[in-house]
Structures
1.
Amino acid sequence: MNASEILPSCTLRPAEPLLPFVSDLTLSFIVPTVGYWLISGVYLMFELFYGVEDYSPLHTPAEKLTRNRATKSHVFYITMRNLVIQNALGWVLARRAGPDLYGCEDRDVAVWAMRLRSLQQWIPSLLALAGIDGKSAASRVSHSMPALAQVLAGGGQAGEFSPFLARWELSLAHLLYYYLVPTMQFVSGYMILDTYQYFAHRMLHQNRWLYRVVHSVHHHLVVPYPWSAFYAHIIEALAVGVGSATLAFTLTGMTLRQGMWFGMGAIFNEINSHTGYDFPLSPGRLLGTSPIFHDLHHQSWGVKYNFGFYTLFWDWLCGTLWMEDEHSMRKYAEGRAMTEKKMANK
Ligand SMILES: [Zn+2]
């Protein structure tokens, strides 16, 4: 009996849309756009009602009012334009990939169970390297621990797929299929974003033309704020934003729905990086890329450092890491003092 004969038969069909009045494809671009303003709105609400200035140690209100070289209305216009064009391009690219197909989940779980069964075939050989006879060991535990006996013996009939997959094999396969694989898709997706964005961002600074024409737009903001995260030249918005997301989505084989939540995570990280707030439970702090880390990059004296967005890894490896320290805090203090002086002389 070969593998295809024992797999449950199934028919793939397009998934029912999450909401009845809009396709998942369209929804997957509406949600991140709405999410961008919702997340930004939450920060704004905190700003207005809960005095989060206590968590904003870097810039004074006077700096927020005077140091940026782009007005808030211009930032709003450019951000909206970028979101519309990015989503339109993303929609066209995703449409070519077709809808998510469902209906073969049991079969996919069985495929994973058979992969586990195949892996077991290596166990007796590995045990033999340590001088252990797997089959003898299996016979000793066959009554008390049948699942372990099966593994020690190489998965039963070595070299053949049994039509009777063990309950534990199916349970583990279920866990892999529904939880571990999607988690790995998300983790590897963010690693791809981190890598792509570090090198693309660094190149935008390294090449004079690219910096002057393209990336300097984003650096009009010396004091970034939550909803300024997507304020950038359209070339940057497409080449870095859409480019990195498309690569991560494609290489990890995510479904549209996964892509939707993945995109939301990326947007949250972008917004959080631009808040300038230092909340104790900020998710970025877990990986080191707190808002302070990125705010430092927005300062004229820190612009050649901290190109990463998700982890410190590439900055650390490539020698561009500058974590908050006495020197940077002194520089921030000088900026605050200079602004106060200018305001007083007006
Ligand atoms: Zn930059």
Note: Residues 105-171 form one domain.
2.
Amino acid sequence: MTRARAVASLLALHAAGAAAGCAQVPADRAPAVRALAAAVRLVPGWAVDTAARVGDYTGGNAANPVPAVLAPWRAYLADRPDSLHASPHWSAAEQRAMPAGAEYDLTRGYVFQDADWSAGTSISVLDVVPDADSSAWTVRTLFARVDSATRDVRPLAIVRTRVVREGGRWVLASPMPAALRGWRRESVGRLRYVLAPGHAFDRARAARAAALVDSLARAFAVAPPDSITYLVASSPDEAQRALGLEWALPTPGRAYAPNRFLYSANPALGEFYAHELAHVVLAPAVRETTPGMAVEGIATWVGGSMGRDFRALMREWGAFLRARPAVTPTGIARGAYDFDGGWRATGAILFAMVHERGGMPAVRALLDDLARPRPASDNYVRQNEVVLDASARALGMTRDRLDAAVRDRALRYADGR
Ligand SMILES: [Zn+2]
């Protein structure tokens, strides 16, 4: 594989992970979607006893608790789990304890990615298992795409959900508190580290991360969170299991900005996952209307991406562009290529160029400009165009000059300048 090809595939790989890994909270969906969500079908697997009564032959003839335990899960899935909203089916105590806008279901972005998530998705309950004292239950559910023609099954995730008693009824709850029992705690500055069993804490890296939080907050003139909970795991599988995903597409790092929570599952970064930290700290400077290219661009500029810092990333991306004279930021923004093309690298370099021209005041002004309310759009091409237009204005150039200017800057990065 040539270097340029390697970069292209890495960019594509990261974008695939990041589409989920760095997603913003989607805007509330139109009421029309409700009807669609109501069609959700929960299929009990072989291990799930759905009979109304159990124990007939012993004379016990007791009511089977499984249907009642499954009821809140079924209701939750039918109530637009793709959109963040208060849920009567989820523990009220857990929802109350969260900061405003926080995710109570940490698996949401992995499984319920858009309003029509359930279309073509088969939902199979694998098992429903009580705790030793039957006070709470664990439900494991397989979400899979099934091709109606070939019957090919492509698993999306296996989700582990807790069902607990609250106010005299069954409700859902996060499996994370139980999963993190036995994980070690360490505090450094504003960071509250939670370390997977066996992880050797790197205090020097943690100190760098804590310093980054403060310096980012100063540079962007935002109030830093009082505390940030930072999970460190040795693999995406280990981190995602703690969140309640028995299995899912591996994502090496993920920030839940409103929760002031992130996980790092890339041992090369460990306690210093600058990109995801940036998402958490810079959250006050972005809005739901801020285009994804800018959200990822700013985090990539200050925190790097794919395990590389910004400079290393730019050297690769500059070399990639040099090998492909026809590739332009406009083409990338419009999705004109059969590879990802680096829209996050494009977003990052735009902020770097604006910084070179006008310093942090210009960067903050660009972020403000991009956060301005505008009609919500699911059209990512239009959103990308918003970023290019605003960046050209911030750079004091016309849009048709922007492509050449970005390419020129990227090639100088490739030369180490
Ligand atoms: Zn990101």
Note: Residues 33-174 form one domain.
3.
Amino acid sequence: MANISLKELKFNESENPRGKILSTVDKKLKLNHLEKKNIRILLEKRKKETNSLRKKNILENIIKSLDLSLNHEINDSRENNFRLNLQETNWLKRFPSEDWVDYLIYRYNLRMFPKNQILTKFPPYVLIEPTSICNLRCIMCFQVDSSFTKKEFMGMMPWNIFKKTVDEVALNNCKAVTLASRGEPTLHPKLPEMIEYISQKGILDLKINTNATKLNEKISRSILKNNVSELVFSLDAGNKETYEKVRVKGRFDQVLQNIINFNKLRNEEYKQSKCITRISGVKVLEEQDIDQMTSFWKEHVDEVAIKPATPRWDSYNNEKYYKKEPCTQLWERIYVWYDGKLNPCDFDYKSFLSVGNIENSSIKEVWNSEAYNLLRKKHLDKKRDNCYPCDRCPL
Ligand code: SF4
Ligand code: SF4
């Protein structure tokens, strides 16, 4: 993708490139009085039971958030207060009350700790990459970088690496896992088994991102019966022409049919499924009409969101971006690549920042390692300039 540059996308310090939702289906969604009352009772109960002052404070802050209006941004790194967002409200409405408090504590830690650079013992959020291979070549994606789509970087996650990862995640009580990263997860032949394995481990927030081109009945059934909380369809337009301009090699009609088939299955055989579906797109072209896209897809999914693109189709050659704030991802998440490599983000899709591999180490060791802490220190000391490719990343 040669004709979109960081400059043209006009990143603005006042914008949040990670998650400003430009459009969403249900802006009116909120918890009703009774739901809030019940959540408050459970939070107060947990607060009484805990001896830790730190946990009491967290619970108190969550209780206060129940009186605040809904936050319509996801991954908001600017706001100081914790305010429930659309995604969390939707989760609370669907999942049983016995999980509410643990879920809210996990969400609080995930959103508030990284922005205040508070380091947890284990990453609050783990993204597992079933494969780095993708069948599309979306114009704003690193899959268009031909120096990346070489044998050296492409592969499928072996079961032993997957199992080791998930077992460690569960052992450390981590509540959030996403199956996806640099490639298309539905291309992994064992994706249904992976979903089933994770679902037995008490993960509260299991998300799958897919381009939906290969979403078939077997995968859909596995998603619907195994407590996947969010199924995210990555697409960016409500018409064939624009969709196929952005999602190169994708076919609009096929993706639409796959989503229709998924809904049919959900409505006819898995009415109890708590899985939320969301269109999540990125705005890269002028002609993407967000209102048209939202009105087209709202018939087919629970949520629609579109956000500004992050310039990561050629990350390493971006112009330098003089951002001084520490990158929140260093305190928030870790990516496990298909080959076990551990990386702080997928902006760095060729793993220059990688500081370990799960094959000969653990996530916990790497997360707390000297090398990882050195990277965090560079960010805290406003020395992103000494760190490649952080020096050219807007996140
Ligand atoms: S954005 Fe997703 S679907 Fe598109 S090429 Fe990249 S990995 Fe594949
Ligand atoms: S490249 Fe650096 S600044 Fe950008 S997301 Fe990765 S860790 Fe954060």
Note: The pocket of iron/sulfur cluster (ligand 2) is lined by residues 327, 329-330, 344-345, 347-348, 353, 389-390, 393, 395 (CB under 6 Å).
